[in-house]
Amino acid sequence: MLVLLLLAAAGGGAYGYTRLNEPVAKPKAAAPLPVPVTLGTVEQGPFALVSNGLGTVQAYNTVQVRTRVDGEIQQVAFREGQAVRKGDVLVQVDPRPYQASYDQAKAKKEQDTANLNNAKADLVRYTGLGAYASRQQTETQTALVAQLTAQVASDQAAIDNAATQLGYATIRAPIDGVTGFRQVDIGNIVNASGQTPIVTITQVEPIFVVFTAPEDQLPAITAALRKGDVPVEAWSSDGLTKLAEGKLALFNNQVDTATGTIRLKAVYENKNHALWPGLSVSTKMRVGTVALATTVPDNAIQHGPDGLFAFAVDDADRAHQRALKAGRSDSGRTQVLSGDLKPGDRVIVTGQYKVQDGSLVAEPHTAQAERPEASGRQIEAQR
């Protein structure tokens, strides 16, 4: 009996030793999850050739309104920031001294006109006397008539000058535009020799935008101008909001050799006053259209050590790096000048920083749909 118990104990010990030293089965490696990305499409179709630039809004006309006569300001007939029309009264300078000069000039002319009429009558009488009047009397009277005629003409010139000075006492808007801050208040004495303007008026309808373009685009701009108007859109400086649509008015007569650019000027109607003098804007100038252009979303283009490239995704959802040469950009898409991309190909737009050549990728909704199954396989393998 004792022998049987010892044999049973020995057998149990051997069995336990075997179980403790038996190698544990390792779980199978989990399949890699696809990299979440956003995909876009390679397209082919008409593509506008747009030149992007930065510019500054300039008033069509700017006038600093100053007085042309001396005197006290009796009335200010405008509000700061008011839209005014050409000829509107802005300021009234005390007109009384100039009115007096005008009246005096008129009275002087009337006096000299009376003298002239009397001299003419005497000349007629001397001429009628014939031989009874001496030649000296006739010539003297003729000279007097000429002298008084010239004096009357001089009086008329004095009247015109006095009327002009009187008109200057009423300061009017020289152009259509918007008034700025008033620099001189009512009751102050202004002088024609003073350098401080009463107010500045800027014309904002229409309005200009001055911007630059690279010098290598000058031939295309010149060719577009020969065909007709060249559209130029003005956008906010961040490029998110379109402010106005206009057209190219002119380009400068020389290239800036320091920067390799040329200055251009576009004109806008600006009826809604979206553009304001001094505002910084970005511009989009369309110089032509490519009938069949291959384009990709702007964000699909990446910079690598060997140049530009994009990740194309095949039917097995594998990403492959494709070298390319990019052209102009417009409305969120860039023209592909050369490269192994065909219309309809899928390209990665966001998420490239996690992608390598050959990586398995999927858009977020696809990746989420596959994730529970993959997690289940992982847990099963661990068991």
TrEMBL record:
Residues 102-169 form the Multidrug resistance protein MdtA-like alpha-helical hairpin domain. InterPro entries: MdtA-like_b-barrel, MdtA-like_BSH, MdtA-like_C, MdtA-like_HH, RND_pump_MFP. One of its GO terms (cellular component) is efflux pump complex. Residues 206-289 form the Multidrug resistance protein MdtA-like beta-barrel domain. Residues 61-202 form the Multidrug resistance protein MdtA-like barrel-sandwich hybrid domain. It is found in: Cell membrane. Residues 293-351 form the Multidrug resistance protein MdtA-like C-terminal permuted SH3 domain. One of its GO terms (molecular function) is efflux transmembrane transporter activity. Residues 368-383 have a biased composition (Basic and acidic residues). Residues 359-383 are annotated as: Disordered. Keywords: Cell inner membrane, Cell membrane, Membrane, Transport. Belongs to the membrane fusion protein (MFP) (TC 8.A.1) family. NCBIfam families: RND_mfp. This is Multidrug resistance protein.
